[in-house]
Amino acid sequence: MDKSNTAAATQKIEFRRVTVPAEMDALCELDRKIFHDFPADLFIPEEWAEFESYWMIVDGRVVGCSAFIRDSDFDDEPRPGCLHIMSTGVLPEFRRRGFGMKQKRWQIEFAKQQDFQVIVTNTRESNVAMRELNLKLGFVIREVAPHFYYEPDEPAIVMELQL
C-alpha cells in the first residue's frame, strides 16, 4: 500500500455533527487553518449557522470538516433531492495521507443514507487536487461558473454525482 494512504487506512476515523452555536469558534478557527490561502473564501458564523456541519476526527483529533445544505443547488437555488457540499476541508498537515478520500467517501455514503439523488459541489479552478479526487469518485463536471470566487477572481468548477 502507498505509504501516503496508510494513515487513513489504519487510524480510527469518525464523523460527528458540529454543535452550533457551542462549537462555532472552533469551526471558524478550523476554517481559517484549512483555507488560509484564500481568506475571502472563509465562511462567517452566520453562514456556518445555516449549514449542517460534521467534524472529521482521527484518533480523537479534529483534522477536517464537511458542511452541507440540503435540497439546494450550488447557486443556492432550491433543488429537492440534492445535497450541496458547501465545504470539504482537511488541515494542511494531514493532506496527502488519504483523509480527503475518506471524507469524500463518507459524504457520498451520508447522502445515500439520507436518500439524496444527487450531490453537487464546487471548487476553485486552481484546486486540481479536489477536482481530481471528485472525478476519481465518479463526479462529473457540470459547468464552469466564471467569476464565482474573488480575491483572486477565479471560476468555480461545478461537479455532480448522481446517486
Task: Based on the model shown, name its key terms.
163 residues; alpha+beta; Aminopeptidase; seven-stranded mixed sheet
Overview of this protein structure:
The chain has a single domain (3-162), classed as Aminopeptidase (3-Layer(aba) Sandwich), CATH 3.40.630.30. The radius of gyration is 15 Å and the shape is globular. The protein is α+β, with helices and mostly antiparallel strands and 163 residues long. The chain is built from 5 helices and 7 strands; from the N terminus they run αβααβββαβαββ. Strand 4, helix 4 (99-113) and strand 5 (118-124) form a beta-alpha-beta unit. A 7-stranded mixed sheet has the order 1-2-3-4-5-7-6, with helices on both faces. It has helices spanning 3-10, 24-34, 45-50, 99-113, 128-136, and strands at residues 13-17, 52-58, 61-72, 78-90, 118-124, 140-149, 154-162.
Question: Helix and strand layout, with pairings?
Answer:
Layout: H1 3-10, E1 13-17, H2 24-34, H3 45-50, E2 52-58, E3 61-72, E4 78-90, H4 99-113, E5 118-124, H5 128-136, E6 140-149, E7 154-162
Parallel strand pairs: 4-5
Antiparallel strand pairs: 1-2, 2-3, 3-4, 5-7, 6-7
The CATH architecture designation is 3-Layer(aba) Sandwich
**What is the N-to-C order of secondary-structure elements (H for helix, E for strand)?**
HEHHEEEHEHEE
Number of beta strands = 7
Alpha-beta classification: alpha+beta
Portion of residues in beta strands equals 35-45%
Anisotropy-based shape? globular
Alpha carbon gap, first and last residue = 29 Å
Oligomer state of the chains in this structure: single chain
Into how many domains do the coordinates divide? 1
Low-confidence stretches: none
Helix amount, in percent? Answer: 25-40%
Give me the CATH fold name.
Answer: Aminopeptidase
Global mean pLDDT: 94
